[in-house]
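pinging the channel bc i need a second pair of eyes. not urgent but kinda urgent?? the chain im working w is below, pasted from the shared doc
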Amino acid sequence: MKYAYIILLIFLFSSCKIDNPKVELQDIEKSEEALPLPKDSVQANEKDIKDLGKSLSIEFKQKELIEKKDQRSAYQKLIIDKRYVEEHKDYKINFKYPLLNESLKRTHVNFNNFITNYYVNIKTTISEIKINKMLCDSVTAANFREERFIDYKIYVVNDQLVSVLFYKENFYSGAMHPSYSFDAFNFDLNRGVFMNFEDFFNQGSEEEVLNILNRKITSNIQDSNMYYDCWEVSSSDFFASKNNFVINDDVVEFYFDDCVMCPSHTGSYSIELPLVELLSVLKKSNSNPLVFNVKSDRN
């Protein structure tokens, strides 16, 4: 009986020793669940979500530009699609550009010479890349493989005018996405010359055109969430890029580089202005193909 009593005491004592740790473990688990996440961790998660959202917006914005329809397929006899690709350990060049069929009109050579000798100048591009490599003192940047990419959109407004938009992808070391810059050219097919702002719009009408453009931007900001971080174009930025427009049917479309009108993650690269909204500033001349287009539309 004495031994049975001792065994019973040992059993009870060992049961108590086992149960207590279980209680303590549960308390620890509950206390851990109740602890809030560190502030730095919460802020990091919010930043990651915002960065992901911006990254997706940039991809969508660039995809929208790349997939935008032009008229090259409808004018295959007039437009010759050209491409130059060069792979190098330090750089990659990928240029797409149009030429005009010189057999249709002799003055098309003026367009072709400008594009090949000035705008899409392969030798100059390679020289610029090599100079940049030599001037850069950053080991990371020096080892970064530079990429130069040019593509285009082309519109044949009527028998008189060809309108070309070149867009460039600019890759920088450490950046997740390229930035975009633009150059637009309007070529008179009849006279064989390039046209600028003053050929389409009244002399000294830049401020009035800018006001029309900024009213359109403000309207887009108010009507569309896509433009939530955009802003009006400054006078200096507009004067610097006033020739950066293409004409497509009854619309004049001004293009701006990244961060001139909108940040890279929202908005658009361009603003469309219908010709009917530009009647007060259009140059009244037979050499202005836009006047012909307005008359046609109003008829």
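so Residues 2-34 form the longest helix (33 residues). and Residues 1-13, 15-25, 28-32 have pLDDT under 50 and may be disordered. — does that match what u expected or am i reading it wrong
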